[in-house]
Structures are given as structure tokens and as C-alpha cells.
Design brief:
This protein is of the alpha+beta class and 153 residues long. It is 23% helix and 33% strand. The radius of gyration is 18 Å and the shape is elongated.
């Protein structure tokens, strides 16, 4: 009866060991609403779940973001610009890649499996702190064997 908790913790545990990650949040709140967040930040949000059956599935949106820093020094390089957009996208992509690869290779005691991974979608200059990064939808499947129900005719 705790498949949702188990899947949420499975994702969190896979992300927390990723290089560079500092903060992991979850829920439907605005992603960067806590001033003491240390970036890069991963945010996990539930999108939907299946009706009970042999397996339960949960689809989560995972966003990994970092703050865009704009230098006051003018840059003559039109490709690189005067900010860290490319660095943010590279770092956040590496964090998501690490977490998904770890989940795919992890033989876990709960038999959680990745059922689907969407393409990564870039996030550019979003939210209050002008965040850059990536988001991905991830569907996890977990056996529905946490309880037994007996029916009498």
C-alpha cells in the first residue's frame, strides 16, 4: 500500500548521488520558492498514476535546474555570450542522465522498473531565479503485491 512512497524515494535516491546536485524538492509548488535552495536543484512532481492492476504505474516529471548567471563584462563572442546557459544545460543534462541510468541499472528489492522515459525538454530562463535546465517525464512500474484481498461469494 505504499507504492507511491516507494517510487518517489526510488527517484530521490537515484538523483541524490548524482554529481553536482545540491537540492531535491517535490510537489506542485513553484520550483524555486525557497530562498535557501542551493543549485543545481532537482524537482519531482507526480503527473498521473494507473488504476490498480497487476502493476501500478506512476508518471513523474523531473526537472533539473540551475541559476543563470549573467556577467556584467561584455562579451564579444556571440556564440558563447556573457552567461552560463551552456554550462547549466550541460550540468543539468549530466545529472538527469546519471539518475536515469542509475534507475535503469538498479536491481532493487521492490522490483521497480522504468516503463517509459520521454525526450528531455529544455527549460530556459524560467521562474523567479531565471533557471535553465531540462525536464523529463518518467513512468515507473511497481508490482501491486503489497496487500491481499479475499472475496467471498
Amino acid at each position: 500500500m505504499n507504492q507511491y512512497y516507494t517510487c518517489l524515494n526510488f527517484i530521490r535516491d537515484s538523483i541524490k548521488d548524482a554529481p553536482f546536485i545540491n537540492t531535491i524538492t517535490q510537489g506542485t509548488d513553484i520550483i524555486d520558492n525557497v530562498k535557501k535552495n542551493i543549485f543545481p536543484l532537482a524537482h519531482i512532481n507526480i503527473l498521473n498514476a494507473s488504476a490498480p492492476g497487476q502493476n501500478n504505474t506512476f508518471t513523474f516529471e523531473i526537472a533539473v535546474l540551475d541559476i543563470r548567471n549573467v556577467s556584467k563584462v561584455k562579451s564579444n563572442d556571440k556564440f558563447l555570450g556573457n552567461d552560463n546557459e551552456i554550462d547549466n544545460l550541460n550540468t543539468c543534462h549530466a545529472i538527469i542522465n546519471y539518475a536515469i541510468t542509475k534507475m535503469q541499472l538498479n536491481r532493487n528489492e521492490f522490483d521497480i522498473e522504468i516503463e517509459n522515459v520521454s525526450d528531455l525538454t529544455p527549460i530556459l530562463l524560467e521562474f523567479t531565479n531565471m533557471l535553465d535546465g531540462w525536464k523529463v517525464d518518467l513512468t515507473l512500474s511497481i508490482p501491486n503485491n503489497a496487500m491481499s484481498i479475499c472475496c467471498e461469494d
